[in-house]
Amino acid sequence: MAALLLGTGLLYLWDLAKTGWGNDFYAMAVQAGTWSWKAWFFGSLDPGNVVTVDKPPFSLWVMGLSGRLFGFSSWSLLVPDALAGVASVGLLYLAVRRLSGPGAGLLAGAGLALTPVAALMFRYDNPDSFLVLLLVAGGYCVVRALEHASTKWLVLAGVAVGFGFLDKMLQAFLVLPAFVLAYAVAAPTSPGRRIGQLAAAAGALLVSAGWWIVAVALWPVADRPYISGSTDDTVLELAFGYNGLGRIFGEGRGGGGRTFTPPAGMELPTGGRGFGGGFGGQAGLTRLFGGEFGGEASWLLPAAVIGLVAGLWFTRRAPRTDRTRAALLLWGGWLVVSALVFSYMSGIIHPYYTVALAPGIAATLAIAARELWRGRANFAARAVLAVLLAVTAVWAFLLLSRTPDWQPWVRYALLVTGAAAVAGLLFGADRGRRLGPVVAVLGLCGALLGTSAFTLATAAIAHSGGTPSSGPAVGGGRAPRGFGAEEADSAVIDLLKGTTTKWAAAQSGAMQAAGLALASGRPVLAIGGFSGSDPAPTLEQFRQYVAGGEIRYYVAGGRGGFGGGRGTAGAIQAWVEQNFAPLTVDGVTVYDLAESVV
């Protein structure tokens, strides 16, 4: 375990600062939280608390506290995410170990650590790293509850999932069917007590998820920021609208509930419908294996599904409280439900969402592989284990073939080692005292070499923007830049550094305004929130800010919302253009709001 955690720590922490600010959008909110406790509590994009990010603030709380303790920097921003990854691997090891032994625990932990999308997100400032940690913590608590029908541990599982909601809303609830099923089936107590305990856990979930929602709802609207992404300035509408049913059923809405299309010059992957579909490709069972999704987390997915089916079949006559079947229901249920939702949701979905699949895949495969290895005296168990290895090696070979010029020896090496392990299993070489360990090592190489190589390649390069992706460097030696990864102009930054107003500048859309705030170290008002389409601030509020001398510059060239400059952001831009003279600062149009021309 020590070696596993040390290796994971090196993988996730080594040269971490090269990623810079990662996703500028969230980094801007963390920066604001280091200036204002109110902005920290709400997850505001600026210390003036005009508008929030379009997610709840749990991850921002952790990163913001780190920034306050150690000073706001790339390192203090990203280290909490990396440590969340190490903790996730450790907790997964402990959870699987309790029901399936240390060998399965080590394999599960290694499987999670060596998933490419895990190396991507645990070195990034998106909310997903803390979501995974909280959900794995919930799984660990369910395992502890299963051992002795413990109400305390089941309630703690509800608390963990509740705080997962405060990190990424309804996505945290995807594990609930598996948690409930595993406990309802396998807990060693009466049916009535199981129902009562699950009800208590549900209450704990509601309290831990709902306290912040209630606090925001009770806070005077005039004294708090606008809830970005909502249509009525409430957290519940955000949770069940833009970040909930809208993601599943494909309403294709941006902040403020408006339908949007990509702005000019912004290229998106083809496929799907609406803005979200462009990122996620066509919905269906093949989504997780095709395009960008395949290389993120699907390396061990086919084998995990086969192992789940085989494990449930071999334990079909076991007692109700059988530990192996309980573990398969828990982690396999996590895998199946999350995979189906990700496969068929037709709203906004990014390939990196699949990091939430990684613990379920790793744990399910580890448990199944351990049981099949233990039962390999039975030819059927050996044959299924051989199928797992063969499928994993072939699928890894096909995934690596998508980047044929990158380290081609890896895909051939894993194919050879995998084939040798399969042959050893089928011909019984694994049962020998000397050859057994050799077959095991060959099998591990065949199963993990591909995903390990892709993971190392992912960790070796810097990523930026709102849509980071796993895999080796392209072109100039760095990862592709996703939307929101634009670099601020140095001349404009120098201009903002000389300001003393409440906001150094304002710009439409946080994806560009964030770059200005981070580079200048001065507060910038992101008009309209994430995409510029939230009605915050209103035109009247903006005019009051300007009249009070609170904003010095308006920087043109923001996204004005994916609504194409309509709505509040468009009205503000039109008012600025009518009342202030434009300046050209190294090719960028800037309006000095201290010098009206009217």
Short description, anyone?
This protein is mainly α. It is 59% helix and 5% strand.
Description of the structure:
- By secondary structure, the protein is mostly helical.
- The protein has two domains: 2-261 and 296-374, no CATH class; 490-596.
- It is built from 24 helices and five strands.
- Strand 1 (503-508), helix 22 and strand 2 form a beta-alpha-beta unit.
- Helix 8 runs antiparallel to helix 9 (151-168) and helix 8 runs parallel beside helix 10 (176-186).
- The longest helix has 28 residues, at 191-218.
- The N and C termini lie far apart (70 Å).
- The chain crosses the membrane at residues 75-96, 103-124, 169-186, 198-222, 297-314, 326-346, 352-372, 379-397, 409-427, 439-462.
Number of discrete helical segments: 24
Average pLDDT works out at 90
Low-confidence stretches: 252-278, 560-564
The tally of beta strands, per DSSP, is 5
What is the straight-line distance between the termini?
A: 70 Å
- The 3D shape can be described as globular
**Structural category:** mainly alpha
Based on CA atoms alone, the radius of gyration comes out at 25 Å
Helices and strands, in N-to-C order?
A: HHHHHHHHHHHHHHHHHHHHHEHEHEHEE
Query: Reading side by side through the largest sheet, how are the strands ordered?
Result: 2-1-3-5-4
Beta-strand residue fraction: 5-15%
How can the largest sheet be summarized?
Answer: 5 strands, mixed
Query: How many structural domains?
Result: 2
GO molecular function: pentosyltransferase activity
Transmembrane segments: 75-96, 103-124, 169-186, 198-222, 297-314, 326-346, 352-372, 379-397, 409-427, 439-462
Keywords: Cell membrane, Glycosyltransferase, Membrane, Transferase, Transmembrane, Transmembrane helix
Main location: membrane
